[in-house]
# Entry
Amino acid sequence: MTGGAGFIGSHLCEELLARGDEVVALDNFSTGRLENLKAAMARGSFELVEGDVLDPDLVASLVAQVDRVVHLAAAVGVALVIERPLYTLEVNLLGTHHVLDACARSGKPVLIASTSEVYGHQVADRFNEETPSLLGPVSQMRWVYAVSKLADEYLARAYAAERGLQVICARFFNTTGPRQSGRYGMVVPRFVRAAMRGEPLTVFGDGSQVRCFCHVSDAVRAVAELLQSPDHFGQSFNIGSDEPTTILDLAHKVLEITGSPSPIEFVPLEQAYGVGIVDIEYRVPDISKLVAATGWRPTRTLADIISDIVARYSAEG
Ligand SMILES: NC(=O)c1ccc[n+]([C@@H]2O[C@H](COP(=O)([O-])OP(=O)(O)OC[C@H]3O[C@@H](n4cnc5c(N)ncnc54)[C@H](O)[C@@H]3O)[C@@H](O)[C@H]2O)c1
# Structure
């Protein structure tokens, strides 16, 4: 697995180990943390390799050792991508190319992480896997992340068509829970952290943006289920919760659960990220394809997610 020390990766390591798999995790610790892997490292069937997906020889040698691959390593999050677009394109395009190429050469099936961002600012009641992408102008760096992940999906399909690669594209919608960093603007940990410190909860825009938040333990279970059957390869799947909430309602729920007196402050989006950024107003997945294929459904509510993040921060002190 690449990106194994990250937020989703570390939870997926634990999920796969609990299912009896042996796991080799590759990570360069750019956003991942060794501490995330404490539980995984306590098990004999886990190996950690510190290295970079931009190193094709290392990627090829690790792919040769395993029987299937999950590729999660990426530059993640709109804020990071706006700060470092070149780095984002390098890691997300070249890194994914190295992984797909190694998998194709050695005949290993692979699941790669894509994102709901590939739908862009498309307006649809619920995005299904065939909903067209609608990205903004090239002058807006905000779209670099979506473009890189969209290109990854095309690369995966091209490898499948021309080199017989078995590949699944997992389109994660907002995934959150313990170990997610608020550093790059991930909204739920950011709100929880602010509420616990009695600091203002900063809402970008008017807070009417609609999102669905999926607990990471549900998301990694979906990945593990998708890896179970060869029927799932050659396809893209949405992974996410389909329970919508507005960002403002999320802020109120965080205040209610933490019992925090923090105020809610509204900040124009341009002020938060710089001029020219557009936010996505409405993002709700249609998960019927994943449900039909695997029987998976999310089991954890938004309140569960907030409580779990609070518990994690409390334990960290
Ligand atoms: N969390 C979400 O809501 C979400 C939504 C959509 C898609 N995704 C995708 O899921 C995947 C995992 O995201 P996450 O939220 O766990 O983020 P994360 O930043 O916690 O995980 C990414 C991991 O990849 C590692 N990494 C980055 N560049 C690397 C490189 N060049 N070589 C080796 N390792 C490298 C990082 O150190 C980190 O451990 C990403 O591909 C991301 O695009 C996440």
In short: The domain at 7-245+274-316 is CATH 3.40.50.720 (Rossmann fold). The first strand starts at residue 23 and ends at 27.
